[in-house]
Amino acid sequence: MARSRGTDGAGLNEELIKLLEQLRWSRRGFAHRVHARCQAIGLPHTVSPSTVSRWCKNETTPSGPLAAAACHVLSGALRHRVTPESLGWPADPSDIATDSLEYTDLPHAVRMLSRLWELDSVPDRSLVKNTFLPGVFGPASREALVMPADADLAGRGTNKATAADIELIEDQTQLYGRLDAQHGGGKFRSVFAAFLATHTTPLLNGSFSAKAGRRLYGSVADAALAMASMAYDDHLPGLAQRYDLQAMRLAQAIGDRDRITRVHIHQARLAAAQGDRREVLTHARSAVLACDGASSLVKAYAAITEARAWAFNQSPQRTEWAVGRARETFDRARQGSGVDWLSWFDRHELEGQAAWAFAVAGMAEAGTKAWEEAQDMPAERKRDRVELLITGAWLARLRGDEAQHVELAQRAAEQARHLISRRLTLRIKRLTSGQPLDEF
């Protein structure tokens, strides 16, 4: 609802008028765009030209959610953030930083993802530099692992979600996943977030059958996890944690253990970035438990993550055992038997992760052998190849080969210059200063 302010001394809303003139929008055009946004995100507001006129005359102000919708429209058109406060309007009272750490029901997860995409679509790090909170995933993990899938997955909104709509989400997730590997998580994350806010939010609030809902929620979970990976690579662990939590709830809703496994693997990486050895192992072991009954490829991914967790916890024997199990499980995977989100997990990636685990565990000979097996990694996976150079440089140092250490570290730094990855930049700084490998 709009809130009346009266006209005494209020004057005109000069800032709003200026922005509409800058965009060359009529009040009718702005009203239409805001109304469409409200429909897309499920806000029960009717916005007419007279509504906008009252805003311009400062006769009324929109409520917090309606102000957020109007500012989203303006921000997208102007390509910079417009806040409700800058227009003299109230901010949306919900605290996204706190609310997005809650693990409740499916509608809550949908609302939080919609808000996160809106905020993340504006390339302003101050909006998404939220604090990482250890321990948040404990209750969520237990619930996801033991609770049955949601009974009702149908949508009852106005707009019908078609198979083509869902396929577009899947195609875009794969596209931005490839771009992430080629250019780094800081390059296109805001663009992908804008797509999800514009295209996916209306679908989640739309009409679909339970069967379509299962596919839709799975596809959105994959998109949220892709966003989490990009945020992690852009050194925004708090944002990554929030995406992961919502993805976990979607995966639980459809009873998808593969995706629950993937979330735990993500959380192990985030815990490693925070230096929390116990949490790294907890999430890695949870991933192994979650993938019971999954495909061999998913099991191999969980097993190599456990190997890395044991290495991070300074346990060489368990590291070697887990690497062996990962290799054996990978060998049992039939070609084409994997899942779309794990299509990149090939023999080169497996051996690259094994090399990292052996390097961290101080096992130079085994690590070097695995590192050599990973050398034919596809060229388009530029960031992964830089990660491999970092691992190789550390293994060279373990062997006492200072010349190769310097050479590989220099190559890693040179190739990383073409990537927008704050995480890699920090890792290379640690490498060149002689500090041990500290992140997955």
TrEMBL record:
Keyword entries, A-Z: Plasmid
The organism's place on the tree of life at top rank: Bacteria
UniProt xrefs under InterPro entries: Cro/C1-type_HTH
Name this polypeptide is given: Transcriptional regulator
Source organism phylogeny: Bacteria, Bacillati, Actinomycetota, Actinomycetes, Kitasatosporales
